[in-house]
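Q: Could you fold this chain for me?
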Amino acid sequence: MKRCLPNPTGTSRRRPAWAALLTAAALALLAGCTPAPTADAVPAPPATAETAESAQSAQSTANGNATAENGAPAPTLAAALDGCLAYETGSAGGSLKAALAAADLVTYLAGENGGPDAVYSETVLWRDSLSEAERATLDENWPGVYACAQSICEDPAAQQGLLDDAGVTQDFGAMDLSGVEEKLDAADRAIHYR
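A: Sure. Below is the predicted structure, expressed as structure tokens.
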């Protein structure tokens, strides 16, 4: 039978019990980093056309498109005007984002949402709620959005190429745009209100 040679330091070769406990605790903690599946875990619902459409709508809103999920105009004037803040003039795609913001604004203003006085009042409230940085962005972006919105009202067919490139799906040729220019001018007056 082979015998172990004594330890030259004179100490025992056995590890103390506390070292074994620390090792076991460390392994238990590491094992807890990846949770084990449970019996009551619910799998994610399968992707459907509806969930894909909701995700696309959320992305459109994040990109400045303030239309509702069903393609209807933005639910509030403030939501439509927020598109004017969703980009920086001169940035890549800036003209397309301006066209998108103008399309959302025209779509909203074409709906039953009050006359020019109501649009003016709501626009003043919206503008007054903006931070200084947002006001500066609005001052830069508004002329392009306003000009594009006017062009849509005057001749939607002439703007169709730009609107298509911007991903706008509204059919402005089929919309009743009477009265939109007055509301748009009221919004312009409110934005330049100091």
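A (continued): The helical segments are 17-31, 49-62, 77-82, 94-110, 116-128, 132-154, 160-166, 180-191.
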